[in-house]
Structures are given as C-alpha cells and as structure tokens.
Amino acid sequence: MPRVSQWFIRTAMMYLVAALILGAVMQTSLADRLPLFRALWLTYLHLLVVGWLTQLIFGVAYWMFPRYSAEQPRGSERLGWATFALLNFGLLLRVIAEPWHALSGRGGQLLVVSALLQLLAGWTFVANTWPRIRER
Amino acid sequence: MDLRGEHLAPDSGTLGVPRLSVLMIRAALAYLATGFLVGALLLIQRAMPLGNWLPRLAPVHIEYLLLGCIVQLALGVAFWILPRFRSGPERGRAAPAWLAFVLLNLGVQAAAIGAAAGAPVVIGLLGRCAEGLAAGTFALHAWPRVKLFGTEGVERGRRAE
Predict the structure, then answer these.
(1) Burial of A89 (0-12, 13-18, 19+ CB in 10 A)
(2) pTM over 0.90
(3) Which tens digits make up the pLDDT trace of B118-138?
(4) Helices A3-26 and A77-104 sit at what angle, rounded to 10 degrees?
(5) Considering CB atoms only, which of A66, A107, A112 is closest to B17?
(6) What is the distance in angstroms between the Cα of B1 and the nearest Cα belonging to chain A?
(7) For residues A49 and A53, what is the distance between their CA atoms, to the nearest angstrom?
C-alpha cells in the first residue's frame, strides 16, 4: 500500500472515531446546555461523510485503481499528497470555523477558505484518478 | 512493458476494466467534481451571500455526492471486480447492470434537478423510483456473481489467460 493511502485510511479511521464520539456527546444533556453542540450538526455529518467515507474512498482508490503507467503507476504522487493535505486542512478548518461562525457571526473568511480547500481536494483527486480509469 | 489499465490490488492478476465500469466510475468522478463545487458554494454562501437561489442547490449537493458519486462508484467497482464465470459471458448478464447505470443517472438528475428547480413532486418521486429500480436491476445482475471462490461456475479474480 502506498504511503499516501496509508495516511488517507488511517486519518479516515480517526475521523470515524471522532465523529461517533461527537455524535454520542450530541445525544447527551450536555448538548442541550451548550449551544456549541447545537451548532455542530452539519460539522458532525461532514466529519462522517467527508472525513471518514470520502477519505477512505480516496485512499483505497489511489491504492487499487488501475495503473496509469509503468513509471507513474498511481498517477502523480504529488497530486495524491496535495489531495490529502487540502482535504484535511479544509475539513479541520471547517470544524473550527463552522461553530464559531454559527455562534458569533465571525470566522466567515475561514469558512470560505475551508470551502475552497475542500473543493480543490475533490478536483485534484478527480484530475489524478480520471486518466487511470480506462477500458482495457 | 505497458501496465496501463492493470489492477493494482495484490494478487489480483490482470483484471481489465470493462466499459460499463469505466463509464460508471467516470460518471461518479464527474458527480464528485460537481457535488464538491456546489458544496463549496453552499459553504461560502453562509459567510458571503452569493445569491438567494443558492440554498435551493442543497438537494443537488446531497444527491450528486451520495447517489451519483458514492453509490455509482461502488456499483462500477463491483461490476468490475466481483467474481466472474468460467463459461459463457465472464460477467454474466450485463444488460441489467447497463439498465442500472441508465436508471441511476436518470434518477439522480430527476431527484436533484427536480428539487432544485421546484419541479412538481412527481418528478422527484419518479427520480427516487428510478434509483430504487437501478439498485434492483444491479442486484439482479450481481446476485449470481456473489459466491464463494471455487463454487461451480465462478472463478477467482485471477483469470487463467
């Protein structure tokens, strides 16, 4: 397994654990007392769907999809690392900025940066994966 | 040595990617690119208003990413790597899988665009029905291929070539 896939898959597992813990906390009475937890519903969903599921798919696809060429079996390794970095910085920024913005109305610029980083992550993944999917 | 198209999973042999899987996986990637774009716009909208019309695209974001991307990617990979048959067409009856591809994409478009455009509820309902039928027809195709290795008529991913 390539190192970048290792990072994708291990990070995905960490997000799964974190999301499920957050989900459990959101079910307790603590969530009723602290407005922070009410602001975290969308963050929780995205931790699961982007942090875990999408990241797991990215890691496995990078590892197991057909070879691009003998020299670059997985396409561009740099693009693979870029996808990993962009996705995770973007998502972590969202975890901070989303509740902050919901509670105080500030941190909007961080939300914009988070959105752009995650968008670039998706596009770099598509750019690197598309040429590997060919009929044979 | 040209390794293009060769599968990278350990011990998987040389599993060629069939046309239907190429189409499904590429469609899934296209939905991923579009779904992420809509998601980014929706997130930016929360901090910087871009237009009153934008929140109506939330169903497009959800439908494209969950059904168009994730489900379609899973079906495309399943069509490619599920065990194949020793005799007859190696992937069995492909027609139901092709039908699933068409129904799924029509369904995703109807459900997503219908909701975003404020189309009559029946459009969304038809979209959901098409998605459900797609799941059913794909299951029809895949059912006989989901068998233990070594059982009659089905071989491992590594084909004697």
Answers:
(1) middle
(2) no
(3) 888 999 999 999 999 999 999
(4) 20
(5) A66
(6) 7
(7) 5
